[in-house]
Each structure stands twice: as C-alpha cells, then as structure tokens.
Amino acid sequence: MKNKKQALVIFSGGQDSTTCLFWAKARYEEVIALSFDYGQRHKKELECAGSIAEEYKVEHHILDLSLLNELAPNSLTRSDIQVDQEAPESGTPNSFVDGRNMVFLTYAAIFAKQRGITDLVTGVSQSDFSGYPDCRDIFIKSLNTTLNLAMDYEFDIHTPLMWIDKKETWALADELGVLEVIRDKTLTCYNGIMGEGCGNCPACKLRKKGYDRYMLEK
Ligand code: ZN
Fold first, then answer.
1. Which of 26, 48, 112, 211 could disulfide-pair with 187, CB 3.0 to 4.6 Å?
2. Under a CB-based contact definition with an 8 Å cutoff, are residues 136 and 126 in contact?
3. Residue 45: what pLDDT?
C-alpha cells in the first residue's frame, strides 16, 4: 500500500536504477528522480533517463558532477581507457569510480532535505558484486548514519536490489509490470547501446545472463 511520502531515486537510466524507479513508484505518492552528469562517455545514458522520466511523468533533475571525472579518471568516462572485461584479482575494476556512490548519495541527501524528503532509493547491489566497495550494504548503512549525523535529519536509504542478483532483478521488473520497459528503454551497456546493448561488455554479459536465466525459469 502506498503511503503519503515522497522518495528521491538516484537514477542513471540503466536497468537497476530504472527498476528502482518503478519500485518506488509502486510505494510512494510522489517520486523524484535525480541523475548525475559526471562526464559519462555516453550521454545517451542521461537521455535514456530523461525520456523514461518524461514518459512516466516523474520529476527529473540532472546535477553536474563533472568534477568527479577530473579527480578520478576511469573507463566509464574516458574513451582512451579500455573497460576491464573481468574484475582483477585484487583491487577494483577500472570501471570503478572512487567515491561515486558516496558523492551521489551525499548530493541526493542534500537535495532531498531541501524538499523535506527523507527516503532515498539507490540500485546498488552486493550480490553481483564486482569488487565495488561502495555497493556493499555495510557502506550504505554507514553512510546513512553519517548523513543523519551530518545534517541532523532522519534519512532512510532504500536498496531494493541489495540482496538480489540480475535474474531476480528481472523478476522484480516483471512483478512491477515493467519488464519490457526495462528491457527496451534502459541503457546498461558500457558501449552506449540501448536495450540489448553490444552483448560483449561486462555489463551486457551480466544483464543478458540474468535475463536468459529468468526467461528460462519463468
Ligand atoms: Zn555492452
């Protein structure tokens, strides 16, 4: 059942955050989407986010965080850095952007508080863990506490995908009645191809593997 509250969703236009957007729409009276421009190689990601928000009548804001790319160049923002195909033996893959989720959530929290919103939603997941330390549940809980202390406010960070894998994320999209929307209108591919994507990059492989497994068992 819906409550009266509003939620702010961190929204990139990819599979995970779009699923979270619809998860929030099913639970909150009003959902606001916040995207970040941090110099992604593919502006198409932000375009996807924009058109989904427009189609589903979600208020959408884009914040400029291009400074992040200057501070931490990585394969998602720089075309001269090839995306790691697999997680390295140690350390983080070069698609990892130091501090990204912390910065995103911090700006989202500042934005939310101005509007009297306490609930933040983010699509991070520990299950398909590819070595991103800021996708871990312990990090989210820690940051939630920090943000509450920093702003003397009761934020509630929701992570609907934290303990589910890609197959279950497709199942959730289906349950929410938006499987086709997620499949056709989101962009997850590191090579900037909407929907099915290039099929070869790590993001496409993970997405397709989950989709095929879900369709097989459905
Ligand atoms: Zn791809």
1. 48
2. yes
3. 87
Residue 176, pLDDT > 80, answer yes
Per-residue confidence band for 36, with pLDDT thresholds at 50, 70 and 90: very high
Extract the tokens encoding 63. 């914040």
- The first and second tokens of residue 162, run together, are 């934290």
Contacts of 29 by beta carbon, 8 Å cutoff, 6+ apart: 2, 3, 4, 5, 6
Q: Check residue 38 and give its pLDDT.
A: 87
* 3-class SS string, 159-209: CCCCCCCHHHHHHHHHHCCCHHHHHHHCCCCCCCCCCCCCCCCHHHHHHHH
- pLDDT at 171 exceeding the cut of 60: yes
Q: How far is the CA of 85 from the centre of ligand 1 (A)?
A: 11
Question: Which of left, alpha, beta for 121 (phi over 0: left; psi -120 to 50: alpha)?
Answer: beta
Residues whose CB is under 5 A from ligand 1 (ion)?
Answer: 189, 191, 197-198, 201, 204
In this prediction, residue 101 has a pLDDT band, given cuts at 50, 70 and 90, of: very high
Q: How far is the CA of 203 from the centre of ligand 1 (A)?
A: 6
Q: Closest Cα partner for 108 from 36, 48, 53, 56?
A: 36
